[in-house]
Amino acid sequence: MQKQLNIALPNGQYPIIIDSEKFDFSEFKSWLAGKKIMVVSNEVVAPLYLDELIQLFADNQVYHCLIGDGEIHKTKNSWLKILDALAEQQFNRSDVLVSLGGGIVCDITGFAAASWMRGMAFVQVPTTLLSQIDASVGGKTGINHPKGKNMIGAFHQPQAVIINAKTLRTLPTREFNAGIGEAIKYAGINQAWFYDWLVNHQQAIKQLDEAVLMELITHCCQFKTKIVEQDEKEQGIRALLNLGHTFGHAIETISDYHYLHGEAVALGMVMAAELSAQLGFCEPDIRKMLENLLQAFELPIMLDNQYAAEEILTLMKSDKKVINDQHRLILLKDMGQAFIAEGVKDAEILEAINSCMTQ
Ligand SMILES: NC(=O)c1ccc[n+]([C@@H]2O[C@H](COP(=O)([O-])OP(=O)(O)OC[C@H]3O[C@@H](n4cnc5c(N)ncnc54)[C@H](O)[C@@H]3O)[C@@H](O)[C@H]2O)c1
After folding, report:
1. Most exposed of 186, 236, 321, 355 (fewest Cβ within 10 Å)?
2. How far, in Å, CA of 268 to CA of 264, rounded?
């Protein structure tokens, strides 16, 4: 089974190929001819899929570079390791980087591609649900700084996104569920019907039903594509994709990445719904609706009280989305009606965080 989408941007377009069982590079054969290829992966994903991927590039000079696994490796050292490998093999702008892994490998590989010789081509081959429905699409690339999540980065679009949904069969359940956190985010933004779809298909999703997963991935990529096409560099509507993320990034940083990205976003969405209700923008039952679906996929809905709300607030202030010292948060008027709220006060944010903490 295969589906193909295209993402059209002012500087060109690229395909998102979603296949249920293979990495399909067939339409790129002539484009790849004569190019060197560097596949970037990590120590968990490489043993599973690197050989299968490299076989597709039998006519090319192929190299690989492995980085450490996990958010603690989304650092300048991993990025430099890729640049060193490119330098050693004398890659130039006409060669190609290929990511093979989850959102972390995708983000770092993209940033290496953005920065090597001021920009070289890269292809995203995402292997987690989260990276297939979100991180690999749209050209946001980057690494973390010790002071905060994704603080260093660039917008750099890939040449293609090649999704092989079969890879989800080896993904640990906790990681799979973290990806569902981002799917629920799309429902919150402006897809109320998608909330019902997720509720109605939860058993099939958990059983990794091939057709349902293909529908899920295709729908999410389509939704993200539409937003990115309207606002590639996040000057407006793309900010809605940050629902749950300002809280979430602070939670990731303060917990030293104890919470996975999708889990921190889940908590962040609950906080955003709580804050929206406190400020009178939506009914309190929106928080309950979100919590029910998040819990169905074993995602956290209460933050461990070992973390201090004040410190989370401080971290939120260093977020990229703060403008002139004013918080810019994505809040909800209803399920599927997210909007950008400016000027929310510290005390209001603190109250929302505290009401989403374990006692
Ligand atoms: N650029 C964007 O627009 C964007 C959007 C959302 C999230 N992100 C970023 O994505 C990152 C999170 O990505 P993630 O959730 O994919 O985490 P991840 O990259 O850490 O992958 C999760 C875990 O699963 C392993 N893994 C990956 N594929 C596997 C497979 N098929 N089988 C078995 N194990 C596999 C990984 O090695 C890792 O241990 C965060 O850093 C976040 O900031 C970026």
Report:
1. 236
2. 6
